Amino acid sequence: MTFSTLRHDSFSGKRTGSSYPLKEIRARQIKRWKAVFSFLDIPDVFRYICNTLFHKELIAMEVLGTKRSRQREKIFLVLRRTKSHPTAEWIYDQVREHIPRISLGTVYRNLHILKEQGKIRELDFGEGLRRYDAMVEHHYHFICEQCGVVKDLDLPPQEDLHDRAKPAVGGHIRTHRLDFYGVCEECLSKE
Fold first, then answer.
1. pTM of the predicted model, to two decimals?
2. Can you give the pLDDT at residue 108?
3. Which of 15, 148, 162, 179 is the most exposed place for a label (fewest CB within 10 A)?
4. How many C-beta atoms surround the C-beta of residue 131 within 10 A?
């Protein structure tokens, strides 16, 4: 498909002009976006685009240098719709209902891309499995030691921990992660 700029030649009455493939037009748009946002670091670019444009995820993926992928969109959608901090295998099972020919390797690759873009977080709670979370804002988790459920805790981030830990570290603290372990309410009620 092409986009044409046509003019009529006043002498011959024939149409003249140039024809640009849409791929070239899209490449120019992406180049302009990168130039506009070159003074910001990638998370700031991503946050700005997500908050201001209609097709936020698709345009952000293009600006960050990845192509649009129906599979990646579905994986991200499945992850955003759950609060359970699923594994890649669980995500694979959910996406496979909609895209039967998707492979587990494709799910892992797309999860890695989404993590690199800052759209999801990869969590490792020491159980040998990596879990994924679409909530990228700073928050805490509770992990049940009996059933393994992972829950988000509605607690404000403790920014004063950075100040208290700074003397022990001696360097710059960028972020922290705090997880709570115990037995969940459901497991306690079963006992």
1. 0.60
2. 94
3. 15
4. 21
